[in-house]
Inverse folding.
């Protein structure tokens, strides 16, 4: 391409051409060509501008994509945690403490070889709506579980390895021992040793070394490595706490528990606790009346005989060798005859006003109990029980009818 052609292509006129153009008038053809050239130059300028813009945008896009990729990789590296695959193998026992967070649980699981990393578990728990509902306790899990599998196992009640011991209100220390043997797989020797170790179980001196009445009703977890002393200590501690909260003077601890245990054993409906407590108070204070200061409670006699419920025979009620026989021994028995609940204790501390000295349960299905102030009234009520039993022999036979006097 010549210089002239090059300048013409760019639309630049050489000086001599410009001078010639001034001297010579342009033909119509030249004017048309100039118009065409101007349009072409304009198009080329637009095309060059668009090309620059496109190239610029493409460059920005490439750089942005790379930046996003770098950020994504950085984020992935930040959240990535080593994890196993599958549901694991073998078996391991893990205890989750009260108040443990997802991160805390993850660390515990990692230390036990359940998950590859605590972080993987924490991430799984965070991404699961139920991840914050894991309950404290002891669980039987597998080793080398994926974080999600471990989480599901902890959310499954079937995975809980805890055993629970329920102390029923009114039950005796013998009943509690049998439950400890069955549920906790403890031996007679272990439990009796715990019962006898007052210092280890925190038994107050007021108990005189006897745990009866001090084993608070409730449900207790038998966790990994728990001993009979651990569990019994919790029961005793709960009873002490209840007595303190109810502001019972220490010197009255044993007396209150003894009365409450009788209330608990004599009637099976809380609505009657207060009235039975009043009967006990009236009988203890009226030493020269009809009852001569005798409680005459079947439950105490049966406890002294080693029986769990039932009605003593006439011979048994006359046996003075039984220190718990309140038909012949005035006042309270030597100690509690069971482990009372809080409602029975409250009833003893604040019994309703009344002159009752007697009571009898006249319907063994509903637990309906009638109270009387005189022996004649009691005889009338007892007749109602006899009529009931004549009509419901299958119910009365082998069942304990609650009567007094």
């Amino acid at each position: 391409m010549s210089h002239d052609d090059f300048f013409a292509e760019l639309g630049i006129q050489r000086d001599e051409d410009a001078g010639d153009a001034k001297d010579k008038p342009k033909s119509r053809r030249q004017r048309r060509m100039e118009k065409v050239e101007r349009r072409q130059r304009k198009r080329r300028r637009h095309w060059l501008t668009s090309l620059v813009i496109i190239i610029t945008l493409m460059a920005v896009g490439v750089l942005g994509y790379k930046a996003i990729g770098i950020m994504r990789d950085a984020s992935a590296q930040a959240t990535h945690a080593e994890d196993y695959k599958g549901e694991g193998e073998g078996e391991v026992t893990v205890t989750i403490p009260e108040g443990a967070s997802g991160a805390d649980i993850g660390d515990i699981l990692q230390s036990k070889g359940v998950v590859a990393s605590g972080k993987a578990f924490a991430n799984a728990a965070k991404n699961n709506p139920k991840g914050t509902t894991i309950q404290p306790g002891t669980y039987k899990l597998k080793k080398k579980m994926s974080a999600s599998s471990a989480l599901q196992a902890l959310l499954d009640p079937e995975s809980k390895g805890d055993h629970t011991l329920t102390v029923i209100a009114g039950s005796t220390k013998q009943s509690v021992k049998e439950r400890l043997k069955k549920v906790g797989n403890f031996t007679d020797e272990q439990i009796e040793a715990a019962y006898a170790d007052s210092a280890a179980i925190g038994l107050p001196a007021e108990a005189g070394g006897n745990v009866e009445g001090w084993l608070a009703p409730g449900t207790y977890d038998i966790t990994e490595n728990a001993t009979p002393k651990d569990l019994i200590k919790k029961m005793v501690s709960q009873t002490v706490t209840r007595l303190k909260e109810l502001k019972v003077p220490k010197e009255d601890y044993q007396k209150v528990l003894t009365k409450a245990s009788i209330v608990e054993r004599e009637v099976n409906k809380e609505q009657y606790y207060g009235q039975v407590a009043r009967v006990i108070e009236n009988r203890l204070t009226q030493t020269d009346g009809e009852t001569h200061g005798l409680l005459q409670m079947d439950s105490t006699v049966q406890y002294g005989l080693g029986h769990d419920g039932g009605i003593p025979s006439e011979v048994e009620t006359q046996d003075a060798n039984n220190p718990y026989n309140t038909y012949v021994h005035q006042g309270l028995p030597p100690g509690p005859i069971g482990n009372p609940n809080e409602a029975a204790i409250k009833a003893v501390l604040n019994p309703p006003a009344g002159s009752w000295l007697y009571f009898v349960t006249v319907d063994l299905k509903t637990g309906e109990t009638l109270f009387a102030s005189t022996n004649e009234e009691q005889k009338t009520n007892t007749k109602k029980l006899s009529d009931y039993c004549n009509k419901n022999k299958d119910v009365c036979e082998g069942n304990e009818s609650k009567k007094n006097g």
Q: What stands out?
A: Residues 15-22, 74-78 have pLDDT under 50 and may be disordered.
